């Protein structure tokens, strides 16, 4: 699956001084699971990822209006972060992948 992580306040703090705790391990795990991280352009209309991940509710709402699974996270401003949020990202990506596979399977006729 193609995933696009927003950079500022999602992967790293707004100043680029620290990364969200646990994010490096999540990115490594996603790569091992054969997910592809795409670098999103600034213009969200050009994002072709299956699941953009961002801290901006307006960006996620726009993504969802296109029929994609947008994942909203809390803004990261440095310091500690809630580890449950990274687990939530993993769960939502599994659900998205399951939905995509399920859509490919022909429905049985009764």
Label this structure with key terms.
single chain; 110 residues; alpha/beta; four-stranded parallel beta sheet
How would you briefly describe this protein structure?
The chain has 3 helices and 4 strands. With 110 residues, the chain is an alpha/beta fold.
Structure, described:
It is a single chain. This protein has 110 residues and is of the alpha/beta class. Helix content is 37%, strand content 11%. Strands 2-1-3-4 form a four-stranded parallel sheet, sandwiched between helices. The protein is globular, with a radius of gyration of 15 Å.
Give the arrangement of secondary structure elements:
Elements lengths: L1 E4 L17 H10 L3 E2 L13 E4 L2 H9 L5 E2 L10 H22 L6
Parallel strand pairs: 1-2, 1-3, 3-4
Count up the helices: 3
The proportion of residues in beta strands is 5-15%
> How does the major sheet shape up?
4 strands, parallel
Question: How helix-rich are the residues, as a percent range?
Answer: 25-40%
Succession of helices and strands? EHEEHEH
What count of structural domains?
1
The whole-angstrom Rg is: 15 Å
- Overall residue-averaged pLDDT value: 83
Class computed from helices, strands and strand pairing: alpha/beta
> How would you describe the shape?
globular
Give the tally of β-strands: 4
**Strand ordering within the main sheet:** 2-1-3-4
Cα end-to-end separation: 32 Å
Poorly predicted regions = none
């Amino acid at each position: 699956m193609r995933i696009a992580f927003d950079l500022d306040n999602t992967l790293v703090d707004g100043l680029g001084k620290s990364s969200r705790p646990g994010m490096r391990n999540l990115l490594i795990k996603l790569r091992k699971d054969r997910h592809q991280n795409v670098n999103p352009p600034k213009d969200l209309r050009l994002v072709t990822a299956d699941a953009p991940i961002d801290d901006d509710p307006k960006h996620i709402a726009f993504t969802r209006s296109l029929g994609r699974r947008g994942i909203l996270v809390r803004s990261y401003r440095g310091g500690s972060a809630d580890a449950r949020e990274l687990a939530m990202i993993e769960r939502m990506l599994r659900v998205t992948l399951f939905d995509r596979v399920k859509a490919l399977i022909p429905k049985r006729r009764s």
